[in-house]
Amino acid sequence: MANISLQHLNKVYDNHVQAVFDFNLDVRDGELIVLVGPSGCGKSTTLRMIAGLEDITEGRLLLDGEDITAAPAKDRDMAMVFQNYALYGHMTVYENMAFSLTLRKEDPNVIHRKVLAAAEILGLTDQLNKKPKQLSGGQRQRVAMGRAIVRNPKVFLFDEPLSNLDAKLRGATRREILLLHKRLNATMLYVTHDQTEALTLADRIVCMSMGHVQQIGTPLELYDTPANLFVASFIGLPPMNFFDVQVKGGKLLSSFFALALDEQEKKLLAAYEGREIVLGVRPEDMVEGGDVSVSVFSNENLGMNTLVHGRLGNSPDSAITCKLRGWYDFKAGDTVKVSFVKRHFFDKETTNAIRAKGE
Amino acid sequence: MDEMKHVRLDRMRYTKNKLASNLALLAIVFNVLYFVSIYESDVGSWYYSLLIGASIVYNLLFMLMAFLASEGVKNYRIGYAFLLLAIGAGQIVRIFILPLKAYHATVTISKVTHQVMQTQQFATVVLLLSLSAICCMAAGVVGVRRSRMLAAYNASLEEKRV
Known about the structure:
A: globular
């Protein structure tokens, strides 16, 4: 049982730089929360505050209702897995995994059982007598996870654990973390800048920018209904396309197209009549055939899909990426007509998504 | 095999034999103390001559062998455990070579007779060599015992696997 409550957390460093602003989150027992955002957005700082490695300047941190804001790291019953593994090079895998328990002077036989159980879960049983340098990056990361598992902590904290791995290994280890979470059913907080990791692992995602929480929600919520331009541009690969458009007479007007609004959209954008807004369209929400002309300058075949990079008209400022289903062989200079299947609207001034009242 | 014994044996597959290894290192420490104690004599240079060279060489050899053996027994290698038993016995034998001879020996310098080694010094070096010997042999015994236990356990696991 481990519920965490982060209440109005703020972090201001000694040099008066504020890294985290008013962070609020309730993590339910057994939930996997992913903190995602670009470098320097405050996600690792938040995790380190939870772990007790950074002081909390303002706010409260509760673990199962108990205030642990000022508790030292060792008393928080949390285990952290770092990006650089932090393994002891002179110790074997077994010794690395047993180390924290040995320090606590636990019975060696109990330690042995715990280490073997963790090794079994992580598929490290045959590697227990090896030193870290004899292991691959993925295996080293599993050892680091094993070291966390043997402690049987209330909360697991992962600080970009896959960043040092190559793409293939990252995918495999990501699946292992997911299986581990299902098996242990433990509360986990996971920090990454990789939105693919966030979307595939998380029960809920916390998207951060410049120290502020931009949106908290399920992966689908963040993908489907981004709260603002930042979230819309950060979540999704390739990123969402944005166009400045004017709402006028039931249409979206730009220099390159005029798109009719449906009844629901008209209602949604009624307050913006005559004003400029930002139209967002995901590359995968486009299909061939329609009113928007794209001047192609490159074509990438991905097998099932084709990525078409181009411009609207001939303007260099109007780059667009389309992810069309199927195999296409467009040449540079070709023109392809596309239509937008799903559209997102953002207020140009606040950058927030334009939503129907009550949504 | 009861559960606790099984766990203890299984643990040996992943942990070093630190007891045997540390005992061997302790034997080196006692040997070094012996080495620096035995030549403390006002008349030593009139008595020892060639024995000093041989003693130095053996001490170096002892330290080398004991250190290698400490690393070997740490990894449950039975050959090194037997080596420790042998050099432990060697430490006992050494008591009867240099210290005992020096204890009984006298030298006459300017018509004055001197005893090469006093009783207290003799007792000290005998004690140090004995401690070194005990540590070596204890390390050897622990090494042999644990190596055999582990080998038997590994064999039983192999049998189960087959």
